Structures
1.
Amino acid sequence: MEYVCICTFTPSPVPMPDPLPLHLATPLIESMRLSKAAGRPVWLKLEALQPTGSFKLRGIGLACAEYRRRGATRFVSSSGGNAGIAVAWAGRKLGVPVTVVVPLTTSEGARALIREQGAELLVEGASWQEANDLAQSLLGAGGVLIHPFDDPLLWQGHASLIDEIASVHRKPGAVVLSVGGGGLLAGVVEGLRGNGWHDVPVIAVETEGASSLAASLAAGQRVVLPAITSIATSLGARQVCEQALRLAGEHPVHSVVVSDREAIEACLRFVEDHRLVVEPACGAALAVAYRDAADTPAAHAGDDLLVVVCGGATAGIGQLQAWQATVT
Ligand SMILES: *Cc1c(COP(=O)(O)O)cnc(C)c1O
């Protein structure tokens, strides 16, 4: 038997945009299990499937590409978490050297993920502050410090997540997402506005001990938490960015705080339901969907919930189980 391949290739008259996005368009799936738990349709935007394991690549990929266009010759990051991993990935793809400075507390697993991308990894100080001070001092002439959440380019990149949903015309009843420094929140609200979805509320979830947005909303101004005590380290910004708090005042944003225990249990349940391992930072958002609909703010009965499954690459199943043993 003979196969004939008929290829019709029409070159596009439109020049390709430069540079190509570094992130993937992720699947949007309906979850039977979470819908059952929530008592209404739950859709999942699977950012955990980004090549770096979290949504961060959207904003950081766009920012790094733009900074290279503007002449950056080195990217520097002081995040030992998913932001540092995304900067390392973006630098490798764009051919720009990357230095990531992390504090001693950064896990060996996260350090390995950064090194494996070919980034230079420096370990400095007991806390992020010291690592960040060193990172600042390394910038030199063409170096750019890539902020993990407070940069309009990041928000623009994160907004693409909503554009993908709008492109399939699936307007959600509410969006559920996690908040650390508020970059994801800022990007999602920007995306909702950009698509004319001003009326879609956002349920902004944090864990106890990392709830800088909830504290700021309660105080009516930005609050600096004295310390981060949650195990959801990816939500561990002591202060949210100004833009996040501003948008929470302009757009319908409902703040929810869950316990570490709820976040971890949601992660483990999600492994059973969807065979995906995510960090407690992401489990926080999932926990809201696993709660009964009656406990969910902004919930019009029957409205779809869209959960941003933000992912996270710094904790494996063994770590989740070890944490579970400490919180129960
Ligand atoms: C960074 C991160 C967050 C929080 O995002 P912010 O933009 O800082 O609010 C949540 N989940 C995961 C997995 C992250 O990596």
2.
Amino acid sequence: MTNEKPRFETLVVHSGVQPENWFGSTLPPIFQTASHRAATAEQLSDLFAGKEKGFIYQRLRNPTNEALENRIAQLEGGLGAIVTSSGMAAIHNSLTAIAQSGDEVISGNSLFMSTYLLLANVFKRFGIKVNFVESTAIDEFENSVTSRTKAIFVESVGNPKMDVPDIEKLAVIAHGSDIPLIVDNTMPTPYLLNPFNLGADIVVHSTTKYLSGHGDALGGAIVDSGSFTWPNEKYPDFEMFKERAGKKAYLDKAWREIHINVGATQSPFHSYLTMIGIDTLAVRMQRHIENTKKIVEFMANHKKVKWVNHPSLESSPSYETAKKQFPRGCCALFTFGLANQKECFDFIRNLKLAYHLANLGDCKTLVIHPYSSQYVSFDPATRAKLSITPDMVRVSVGIEAAEDIIADFDQALDQV
Ligand SMILES: *Cc1c(COP(=O)(O)O)cnc(C)c1O
């Protein structure tokens, strides 16, 4: 290797790999063990006391998980990462490491369904108040900051509203009030966006989606930029962690106070699958984006399609922000409208190639009718607020030949 910093396409293949520690294997061995033997009682004591770095018990740390943590941290340009058993666990742990009973969090309202329910209902039970504001309305974030606000949370592309908050501007608002900005970067992945470059402080992922890429392994990650300083007046409970871990204070706190005790531990097998998945992230994302461009264009010109929502379209309210924030393209998810729910059901029934299921970020093209599925038990007012309408189909564009996906959509639309 030269001294030049490897490019992203190289990092996805080589980062986190330690053949020298893995008997020459270039794939991470699956350390399928609940615990690790210590040589002596003295050593185990040192391991527990943190005087020696090593492995004790899977819920604490695991070598396969660590390979994935190193890889994801490098791809995001962060200081380090913690992998979790799911994206939801990552979001839960990322915020509960900062906010406690009596504290407040400001969140964009355009969120993945379970994230919305976690923040709206579960956090309420623990006395953490979440103020939901319009994800793209920067002034609403600014106006909602109180002395109790401990974090701002947004998705870099709202799912399924397909809106794009201006992360650079949000970071300025957050830092002006000494608050960290947390970004769920699942949808663009670090191939399309590194939120740290725009001022975000913490990034979370559902690795279940594009990072693993094959619809095979549930998982999540928390990544820390290390740049937020956690001022003592606002975050007195960080003081001890700053002394212990310096720039890694947040990761140390999230790990020590939350992660190892909550126990939403990643399975080493899932970390292994996700490592292999990430090897092809750059080429997959490139194809996902190329296909999305072609399919969105086809759908936008189809006479039975009433509307198409993707930030690359000039009709999208997020067009300008997306163009600035995502030079390589925004994401491979879009929504479109037919005349009514019945037409959406007809379309889905007639598909031959695309799969109808609740996931996204798979190699295969996936469709779903969110109104009648994930959001079926939401009250009408909340569905309206989240832009979940009965006429809407959501598409996660796969990496098949675009022509074949278009042909499938075309014949399904014909029968509507
Ligand atoms: C899927 C998803 C999550 C939740 O992740 P899981 O791995 O399913 O727990 C969170 N945020 C976004 C944007 C997602 O798409």
3.
Amino acid sequence: MKYESSRGKYQGLTSAEVIKMGIAPDGGLFVPGFIPQLTEEDLVLMQDFSYQEKAVHILKKFLTDFSSEQIVNCVNSAYNDQSFDHVDIAPLVALNRTTYIQELWHGPTCAFKDMALQILPHLLTTSSLITGETDEIVILVATSGDTGKAALAGFKDVENTRIIVFYPEEGVSEVQKRQMITQEGKNVLVAAVRGNFDDAQNGVKQIFNDRQMGELLKAKHKKMSSANSINWGRLLPQIVYYIAAYLDLRQKGIIKKGEKINIVVPTGNFGNILAAFYAGKMGIPINKLICASNANNVLTDFIRTGVYDRNRKFEKTISPSMDILISSNLERLLYELTGHDAGKVSFWMEELKKSGRYEVDSLTKEKVQEIFWAGFCDDEATIKTISEVWQEYAYLLDTHTAVAFNVYRQYVEKTGDNTVTVIASTASPFKFAGSVASAVLPQELRQDKDEFQILDLLASYTGLNIPPGIKDLEKKPVLHKTVCDKDEMKEVVLKFLE
Ligand SMILES: *Cc1c(COP(=O)(O)O)cnc(C)c1O
């Protein structure tokens, strides 16, 4: 299997090379040259596999320069009972005969990003080994919350790597902040930046583009890399759980051979739903992929009209991990749907950069609409959905998954479709306890309580357990106290690397 850039200037690279590089130097994203197929024999064979065995079988088709043993090691180091609190890793929960929730948050930080960030460090160090790389890899992350902690948990004490996470001092929830500043590990640094997420993100970008920094690191035998979802090594592991969900449904006899399913995904950067698209292209029968957005509904408009327009107000919502106006991974979808037309994709992406807007041709738009259905809902509807689903099914949704559930209801109402449907649940409700509590707990109980008291309250009221990654967080020692200005970030990095 060889990989190529969606802007056309890089071709014929191995998976180890593209995982190490992260983003293509021509500004594009790396994609596989073709999409490997799962035959009916593959599917029947995999049906009785464990999650780990399914992951190995699927990863082998993409990572052809890795040895079997290397893939098994990566998978077993990531998906085990020390990191995940459920044996199925990504369990399916039935709400009724046709609606299933796939819980993707049983990893150490209680958000779906663990599914990829638990394995990415192992894919990356193995890629270094395969390509003969001896430099230490330094991962720089700017985070608005979930990615930072998931990356820290994944890279903690992984040999020949260091990780530095910057978060906005005033931009993350109390639980998210505590999760990060209590992070253990010899190779980790967490620092608060005075400012908002954009300040932290721009600071990190500047460090990446700083020539002097690059040379200093080179002299120290170090190389910077990124852990965000433009890296193929983060997208690939996400394909696995959609195939696993389909196989679980088949194994339980809920669907028959060849029967199609819908998949609903609460979407931000378009990484998670793109993995579902790839699962479909590999051979999972899919009726519709339903793309759910919050008030930042740039993707809803794109899927309905073929026009992508980021020139709009940025809305701060109670599903913050989906507050995004540029969905980077859409570029990979367009590259697939245009039959790998790098010229067209480059043109649209240039338009986006220049004017914040592009419009795809009518054939591409038709192809998008054949596969995707899209909708959005605001914060009020999100809270109402959490409350309704709790009353109807005694199932507690987090704010992101509630957006997906709401949009799925809109879809059923509009289409009357009763196809078996999997809704991707991207976070534990305890991770966003404040908002979730306001949907299900009486006001008298909640008033004057801080975020940690709300956690306990929510647990006792619903009878659910606080997941290990969040439990007793306020009692853990604070290990990271660095606070810096935006223009001090480079110094912070250099000091840590000395
Ligand atoms: C990151 C995230 C999303 C959005 O996923 P994308 O791959 O960026 O579309 C949704 N929900 C939660 C909880 C997240 O952390």
4.
Amino acid sequence: MASELSKIWLSKPHMGGNEQYFIQKAFDSNWIAPVGDNIRNFEAFIELYLMHEVHATVLSSGTAALHLAMIMAGVGPGDTVLVQSLTFSASANPVKYLGAHPIFIDSETRSWNLDPDRIDEAVALSKARYGKTPKAIVPVHLYGMPAEMDAINERAKHHGMVVIEDAAEAFGSTYHRRDCGTLGDFGVLSFNGNKIITTSSGGALLCKDSAMADRAKYLATQARMPANHYEHEEVGYNYRMSNVLAGIGIGQMEVLAIRVEDRNINHHRYKQIFGGLRERGYHVQFQPESPGSRSNRWLTTILVDPEQNRGLTVAEINREMERRQIECRPLWKPMHMQPVFQDAERVGGAVSEQLFAQGLCLPSSSNLTEAEWERITKALEDIFSSDRP
Ligand SMILES: *Cc1c(COP(=O)(O)O)cnc(C)c1O
């Protein structure tokens, strides 16, 4: 029976080997708390990897990091925030937590990320509809592919908007030799179970100066003033990472650079597989990497236009892969198409809608075995078959 086969996941955790040593250190010191050496050391490792361009605060999730970044950007009730439409809902939800309005921006076709040429239009829309300039803008590096940050930063500066760089999928990616996460006013990382490195759940907020990072740490620990009786002048949050999970993070930092290489090797393998299918009359496209960008290739994604692929659709590929216990997934459904954001304003939408209609994420774990690669290759060769009418 086919169900005897173990499932091949889209992106699964891949431990480096030393994680349990650092977890044990938390137990040995009894710092089973959102305080301790592992937290400080995990932050120091992140800062070192990012060449001390930023100050890191590790948190309970990437979503928490986005929420704190928006608070520090001054987003409040009735404000507006520009958000890339083609993304995971966590990029946009914190706008709603704050009683503000997201305005969604379509993608360009060069990296599939926020189209910088649409920013002026979105700002004009914000002024016309809500009577104010947006407080912040949230570009996303989709599947690890860097957005056009120079142009985005330039337009954001022109309009006085804070840039919150959602690098949740892009730890290890670079843009003109600078690390994703260090390119905006704030950077956000995620260590959720499916990301390139994981602490099971967790995230980090990256700030440009230590005063900002101190404020992030303060807000993330219930906005507790340094007084013995717990003085509070502001509303706080319980968003700090556990010292136990930070131990996993240290072990994962040791292997991040290798994971980036592994995922890029995955990408090359898929290029070879689909290159071989060209002689059968199939032409899939990959997410383009522009000169100066280097994606961590967190997920390898393809576009399948039925007209260039003998009528084959992504729905059919997805179904056939699922039948073989191989997990694939469509691209993120654009936020402007989501029922929860149906009242939100947007500029454009046709590009992200087309990407959603024809895009598919392929299994991209860094610990795929040769046997799993054989199953994936065989499945794709069956589905993109030579005797399709
Ligand atoms: C995973 C992800 C997040 C949220 O991170 P969590 O740690 O799961 O809260 C935010 N934005 C994008 C684009 C993501 O992929």
